[in-house]
Each structure stands twice: as C-alpha cells, then as structure tokens.
Amino acid sequence: MQRFLTSPILCLLTLYALTLSAAAASASAMPTPAQTQFDLREVSYHMEPAADGESLQIAMSLQPLFERDRVVVRIPWWQPGSYGYQNYHQRISDLHAIDQYEQRRDILALTPRAWEIDASGATSLEVRYTLVATNEAEEGATPAVHLRGPMTFLYTEDSKHLPHSLTVDLPKGWDFASGHRLDPSNPKIRRSPDYDVFVDCPIAMGDLERHSFESHGKTIEWVLFGREITPTQFDRDAWTAKLKAMSEVCYEIFGAYPFERYVYLFLANGIGGISGLEHLNSTSILVNYRGLRSGAMMEPLESVTAHEFFHLWNVKRIRPQQLGPFDYSTDVRTTDLWWLEGVTSYYNDIIVQRAQLRASGWFWQSQSTNFVNVHEAAGYAQKSPERASWTEWEPDRKTYISYYDQGQTLGLLLDLKIRLETQNRRSLDDVMAFLNRWVNYPDPGYKPDDLQRAIYAVSGWNPAQFFDRYVEGVVKPPLDEIGAEAGLKVVWIEKDSPYLGISFPDDDLTVNVREGAAASNAGLLTGDKLQSVAGVKVQTITEVRDALAKLVPDQEVSIKVRRGGSVRTFDVKVVQRGRFIFRLTPEENLSPLQQTILQGVLTGVPDAV
Predict the structure, then answer these.
(1) How far apart are CA 405 and CA 300, in angstroms?
(2) What phi, psi does 289 have (nearest 5°)?
(3) Which residues, in sequence order, are bridge partners of residue 117?
C-alpha cells in the first residue's frame, strides 16, 4: 500500500477545502422556492369573455408563494407547430397584479413580452389582464371566439412543469369546446399536467355546433363555428363519415389512438384559404366560409384535416428532442421539419386516397404536381431539406424552398425504396408505427440520426447514402431511378430542353401534335406515326427521347412520319421548352412485385407491424 506524509498545516488546508466543497454541494442542493412544499404547486386561470366576443378578462392565480422577492410572467413569442415569432403581447392590456390583501403590486416591463412583479411579502398573487379577441360570427348572431393557448395564457419559467387548471364564466347562451380534460369532481374545471399540455388545447367559445362519432372505442368530436354554413351547403352526416374514414386509416397504420377523446375545431371565417394547427388531442382548422358554402374548399379541407390528424403521431409524439418541453422565449430549431411536416404531407395524400375520397389516378398526379413545385422553387438544388428546415425562422426568398414539398417527395421515395428492399414486406407505415413505440411520448424525443436507425431497424436497408445525398445534400431526388424500379413511368423534361410540340399518348409512336407549336406549323398532324428523328430510325419511346435530347434550340430537324399509306418528311425548327414537365404514372405491364408495391402504397398493404 502507498503511504503519504502529512503535516498539521496540510491537514487544516484539506479540512478547509472539504468544508468549502460541502457548503457548495449543500447550496447547489437547496431547493428553489418553486420546489418547496410551501410554494406554488399549481397555476390556475379564470377566464370571462365579454358578451360581444371582442375581449376577455383573464386572471392567473399563483398561490401559495413562499419567500419570493419577485415573479416574472411572460407571454410566448411563438407557438409550437408555427415556426416564427408572433406579437401576442400586443393583444394584452391593463396588466396588473393583486396580492392576498387585494393590493396592487408594482410591475416592471422587462421586455414587451415579460413583466417583473414585486412579490416581497406576498403569499399569493393574481395577475389580471384584458385580452383582445375576435368575434368570428355573423353580425347580430351569438359571438364565436377562437383562441390558441400561447396567444392567451401567461406563464412563469419556474412553474411550467406544474399542473395548470382553467375555469370559465361564459355569457348566457354560450358554449365551450376544447381538448382539456375535465376535473371528475368538478366539471367546471379543466386540468392539464403542465403548461405545455395546457396551451396545446385550442378553444372554441360562443355559438358552437357539435357532432361526434365513435371509432375503435374512442370518442371523436367535431365542432363547427363562426360564419353560418347551412346543411345544404355542407352535409354534416357526409362530413362525419369522411372524418371517421380518415381517422381509421391512421388507426390501421399505428394500431391505436393516442388519446382519451379527440376534438376537431372547424372555424368558418374570412381567411383567404385554409389553415390548420396540430395539437396533442385536438386541432383547430380555419377555412374560408365562402369556399365552404360553395363546396370549392371541400378537397382542401379534407387534405388539411388528414394532415393535422396524422400530426397526432408525427410531430406531437414522433418528434425530435427540441420539440418538447418547449422554450417559448426564443426560436426552437430542428433540421427535421422536412420529415415532421413534409412526410406528413405525403401521408395526408395517402389518407384521403385510402379513405376512398379521391378518384383512381389522383394520388400519382398529386405527387407529380408536388415535385413540380419542388423543382420550380428558387432553392431547388441549392437548399437541402435539412437546411430548409433549419432556416424556417428566417426564410430567404432568393433561396426559398418548401420543406413541406421536399419532404413529401422524400416520403414517396422512402416508401417505395423500403418496399423494394423488402419485397413489399415492409413500408414507411411500419417505420412510423415503430417510431411511435420507440419515442414513447411523453419520454424525450428522438436523437439525431434516429430516423435512419428506425428505417434500418424496420427494413434492413441502410439509408445513410440516401440521407447524405437527398436530405442533407442537394442532389436531384432519384424519382426516375426509384420510380421506374417500382413500376412508375417517369416523364422528366427540363424547361430549357428542345421542344417540337409533339407527345405520345400511347407506346406505338403515334404522335399528338399541339396546335400552334413548331411541329404543327411544319405540317405534322395528330395521328401521324413517327418513323425517324434527324435521320435516326426510332422504334420505342426511349429511342425517341434519346433522339430528341440531342437536339438544340434553333436547329432545323427532319421528322419522318407515316401518314395513312405514305411516308412523309417535314423540317421542324426546334424551340426551347418554356416549362418543366414531370409526370408519374403506373406502367401498363407491371411485374408482380411492382403491382404489389404500387397497390400497397394506395391501400396500406402490408399491414403495419
């Protein structure tokens, strides 16, 4: 064993160091006021709307308080699901604080969104304020008010983790709807385990029209409010059936619903189009009332509704670690919005197709249109899906590209690739179901590269190269390669490519001639059968494309066709195509695997593991 020589001075120094260490450890272990048994254990709110629907009186109760010199209350700077700063503080007026003696306390505005309240000697505080609201109802009708939590309720940083409750005093004739859980002993009180969950329940108040249905033992409610929409304009029973069909497509993917009950809030107002925001057990969707009355907004409403419902899993539960618990005072960034929003966009198309709300062929047309949007964006081949996700807080028009559109294309490619690699025994559905179990909300979200790990765990295919090229990188998405392998006919024509004004509806080289285009001006007619291009004999569509790809604008090219019983030759001046052309359509002669894959995408086969 080793021996150490000591001295009295060394012993004293050692004892002094140990004493300092113990004191520091004791200080670091001392509970903050919010952690003591004498201090705040719940945050409660009381809300009273004005009868005209234009404002609300809100009181935030903080009690008991123990030896606090000050309390800082804040209003969020943004709301989860909407990645940009908001000016919610501008809706607040007459902010003041009352102590246990009904005495006003001094308040210092630290920032436009944070206020310091003098709490010295206070055992309780009630923070009162007026909030501007918007009456969305027809003039003269019972008001209709829509609220989202982060724009409505103040918070303190050191109490966000505590239970939160809400009581509401409604004007006569008003109704209230939200996803908050009712207190079993007092149904006037709505309770949440923490601030994040509390503000994640949007609210509808006033004149509400309620409907509900049962699905796999769970109640799903939907509420219509705002402008008047008659049953003739909007069939309630038909909409209930559609909601149920879309909900059950998601159930088939995940195998269970992650809620006790779910609430759809549909607000018909003057919004320019349609907008939705996802929540843990509810969603609020704003839709233009004129479009709802005319039926013009029906398909967009179905799509957005499917999108928000799928967010129950992808975003609210399948989420990166940054997205919960939330910091409402600054930007919260992730490189995965392409997955969270974009892949969800892929699934809103999947859902409406599997719910049989779209005609045959619609799905592939929708994916084609989406990729045209990707290709034509200013940031195409310049800003990767990861970078587009990260920079959402400061979008640059010169390099902007939608991570929704990028992610939808990547969702399609990943789904097809997983099916190809597993002989259609696994799909992106299975990856989603796996991630839902793996993340296991409310545990912390997934870590960097966990999306790749999940794909590999489910399929056995390592997607590292795919992510390097098409998620982190700006390489052209391999739609032509993966699509063709899966049985899709891919038409990909760049807008600066040579153009004659002919197309081939069938595979027998019979041409369709666009009126007024170069081929039409030269004398070609629809129905002519192509024989050769620039002296090169062609017999297949592939050979035609290869021959046309060698042409250059302003060149004159000889086109030989058979018309009736004769062969004719025309000189056609090549021009430059003015727009990008992209189409995905299933091939006519599919292999058994290709047929199974394409059918599986549309119907959900195979079932999720």
Answers:
(1) 16
(2) -70, -30
(3) 71, 107
Sequence-distant (6+) residues with CB within 8 A of 176 are 168, 170, 203, 204, 205, 208
Burial state string for 57-81 with b = 16 or more CB within 10 A and e = fewer than 16: ebebbbbebeebeebebbbbbbbbb
Task: Specify the CATH number for 496-578; select among 2.30.42.10, 2.30.40.10, 3.30.420.40, 1.10.10.200.
Answer: 2.30.42.10
Query: What is the pLDDT confidence band of residue 8, given thresholds at 50, 70 and 90?
Result: very low
Per-residue tokens: 304 = 């957005």
Say which residues have a Cβ less than 8 Å from residue 32's Cβ, sequence separation at least 6: 158
User: pLDDT tens across 374-386, in order?
Assistant: 999 999 999 999 9
Q: Span 45-58, mean pLDDT?
A: 98
Size of the chain in residues: 609
- What fold does the segment set 32-172 form as a domain? Immunoglobulin-like (2.60.40)
- pLDDT value at 3 more than 90: no
> Is the pLDDT assigned to residue 250 strictly greater than 50?
yes
Residue 568 CB burial class (10 angstroms; 0-12, 13-18, ≥19) = middle
Residue closest to 316 by CA, chosen among 201, 192, 156, 191: 201
- How big is the CA angle at 591 (ends 589 and 597), to the nearest 5 degrees? 110
